[in-house]
Amino acid sequence: MTLYEIKKDLSNHIGSEVNIKYNLGRNKYEDYKATIKELYDYVFVVESKYGIKSFSYSDVMIKTIRIDY
User: Topology of domain 3-68, per CATH?
Assistant: First the structure.
């Protein structure tokens, strides 16, 4: 998947609740539900009950985070 395809796919889900699994390394994961808030050129912003976080599209591409719609 290219960065453009990832951004296009995420744009279809703005305002939707998604499940995010974030790989912290060494077999440690954060798993939470979040809402996709905004898309920018290089990052996207999600909001969960833990606060607001931003991720880059390359995080999705290299599978540091996994987003389940």
Answer: SH3 type barrels. (2.30.30)
